[in-house]
Amino acid sequence: MMKKTALMFLAAAIALTAATTVPDFSAKDLDGKTWSLDSLLGSKLTIISFWSTSCAPCKEELKLLDSLYGVYGDSGISVVAVNIDSRRTLSRVKPMVESQGWDFTVLLDPNGDLLRLFKVSPIPHSFYIKPDKELLKSVIGYTKKDAATIIKTTRNAVHGNYSS
Fold first, then answer.
1. Per-chain mean pLDDT for the chain
2. Strand-pair category, 77-83 with 105-108
3. Taking the CB of residue 111, how many other CB atoms lie within 10 A of it?
4. pLDDT in tens, 93-125
5. 3-class DSSP state for residue 22?
6. Taking CA atoms, which of 56, 122, 137, 160 is between 20 and 30 Å from 85?
């Protein structure tokens, strides 16, 4: 079982790796507005994080991303949270986002289209994308120890430094 889990993580990490061009997509936000990758790209960095309302580490990561968006949003950083709740639990998403006060764009993926396109498993799973749609890095999971790396990656991107 442990080997199977390790292989799953490895396969997910390899799915989209650095030097990969992120595929275009379209999805609706909480208000029903349709967005594409092009309309979401930041001029310095775009962070797309996949999450669900039942995922505690996802919510912790999104709190950090919201604070980074507050600091660096005007400097070209874009944060997009893709919620993967099923249609059955979709009604929980908007109230949660509003209660958290998150200011970034939240897209809905109840059918798992973006989940499959990005080959996401498990969550949280975040993709750091350069303005030219090249994937800078893919990060699976989140713990408090990851915060320093996320902050460093974001700060570096604001200054045009894309080395991880």
1. 89
2. parallel
3. 11
4. 999 999 999 999 999 999 999 999 999 989 999
5. coil
6. 137
